[in-house]
Amino acid sequence: MELLPRSPAEFGSARYWDHFFRQRGQRSFEWYGAFPELCPVLHKYVRPRDKVLVVGCGNSELSEQMYDVGMCEDIVNIDISDAVIRQMRERSASTRPKMSYLLMDMLQMDFPDAHFQVVLDKGTLDALLTDEEEATLAKVDQMFAEISRVLQVGGRYLCVSLAQAHVLKKAVEYFSQEGWVVRVHQVASSGDKQQFVLPVFVYVMTKFRKIPGSAAQILEICPEEQDKPMRVESTEQLVAAVKDRQHYALLCSQISKTPCREQVSLDLCDKESGKPRYTLHVVDSPSAKPSRDNHFAIFIIPQGRETEWLFGTEEGRRQLAASAGFGRLLTVALHREQHYEGMAGIQAELSGKVMELAPPSLPARQQVPFLSVGGDIGVRAVRHCDSSPLSGEFVVEDVKGDGTCYFRRLIFLQNRNVVQSEARLLAPTPLPGQKKRRKDKKKPSPTEPPGAIDKSYLCCEHHKAMVAGLCLLGGPDALPGELAVLVVGLGGGSLPLFVHDYFSQARVAVVEIDPSMLEVATRWFGFSQGDRMQVHVCDGLDYVAKLAAEAPAQYDAVMFDVDSKDLTVGMSCPPPAFVEKPFLQKVKTILKPEGVFVLNLVCRDARLKESVLATLRDVFPLLYARRIQGEVNEILFCQPGPAGRRGPAELGARARALEGALRQPGRPWDSSYVLADMLQAVHIL
């Protein structure tokens, strides 16, 4: 500890460094970055015939190792410490005759202009730029000016640094404004995480003649795993890119030493586009019994299934890790904008990176298994991409579910982990008299549509519960007959389509604010309008307000399944304006006395949710609630009068009777859809 300076200012003091090197003796001192790690980068920018200046050389072995491997011999080393210069002269005098050590201050060098092709700095800038005081910044400007003076045009200033934000920003701004090309390399780690946590970087500043009046900057970053540099637009972007890599290194260091108490999430981005390619979640299972082979595994989530509860929620991933029986499970989600070459290709691409996230208990040379559902990466085919002023960017995609079923999904990209609408696809059936084709050895192309929309199947559990709530309509023994139903929020149209098709006397009005959604539902989800199905493209708030004023008490059921575009609010469905008391009173006005208001509520903010429920209770005397298992959704059934209060037994009986009425000969029915089951967990609030 006695070698450390008493203040940052001492890093620039010759007296301090004389004391430091006398105390340390002959042992070399490397700030960071051993020669084997730096060598691949140095080889790119140092040629054997170059004349190289090393500023602030200290007693580092870097110059000696460059000389000994034949990288370069004409090396001049300078330092302000007389003690270290004498020490280094003794060490290299007989074995490295072309290399010299000079006592010199890099802020006032004696060399002529344009004397060197390379200036090499290992940690010297970091030692000098310890703060952003005016005096310190003046010294750094002087250092940069001297380096610029002694470098030839086309020469390179190579600065090995930990790239603290203020250090990197200062260097990049100074040299880019002088018209130099700036490239930042991340140095590949030796794998010894105990030695140094932070990654090491090399700034490569290439000197060009400054063009008067030109403001163009060339700024690039070259990550450790690739040679091709990535261009960035500004100093801020370059600093942010470096900071991302520093945070990743700290994360890897942390989780390599101790188990994760909370799940850790990170994105790995595509090298070319910079867009996320993989989303990783690190899940530790303290309950897993340790054995020789169950320390660590990688689980590849099949494409299109990342939104499922088991893969898309913390609790689900925790359950997945526990059932897999590994101490640490790394789940990997694949992004829709990317192309993947099967499981083997993903394994080859990720094998090096995922080992940086291995647990501390993993034995050396332990093979880590890659797992998936069914051993493949699933199928995802994007059918349609578009954007609208109201919904933003969205995609329609077909994905392979569990087993042989395919599903069509609508995803709003501002909330890409939420399925907005979903429909099951029917397997194509041969025409009458048409023979089935023999099985081909080739797998079917994932871009071929499996078939038409299965309108009998409700994919979303909350839609099933909303339909089951219609058994609340009518008197004690009556079942819904002629119905007037208002659905606010179209999406893919599955909910209004089901009501229209299975309640044969129902008249369904749908309100959708975004005309693009009507086009998507019609083109991609089999939705159509007719005598009993009409869509009104307008704001649901305005439509209900107008009805309340002009035509009260006309609907048997009003259903809200409308999402909020404001992701800053803890309620994603519906928008807050739809559950304000004045508007809910208008909803009550347009309901018939024995009607039902069905609301899909998705609220993660406990206080906000309680406030919404309190408002609903103020407006509607009778309020039932049905939680959707494994999801945040809660379906609320609100009735204008308390006379319709029914207990669990009566609800179950009415649900079974309604299901019996809906199941007609010749009409397909999903056998897993049991209305009574949908209402089993309903409770009165």
From TrEMBL:
InterPro entries: Lys/N-term_MeTrsfase_sf (IPR051419), Methyltranfer_dom (IPR025714), SAM-dependent_MTases_sf (IPR029063)
Region: Disordered, residue numbers: 424-450
Pfam families in UniProt: Methyltransf_31 (PF13847), Spermine_synth (PF01564)
Key word Coiled coil present: no
Keyword tags: Methyltransferase, Multifunctional enzyme, Transferase
Ranges where the Methyltransferase domain occurs: 50-172
Superkingdom per UniProt: Eukaryota
Entry's Gene Ontology cellular component terms: cytoplasm
UniProt keyword Methyltransferase present: yes
GO biological process, alphabetically ordered: methylation
Protein name listed in UniProt: eEF1A lysine and N-terminal methyltransferase
Lineage: Eukaryota, Metazoa, Chordata, Craniata, Vertebrata
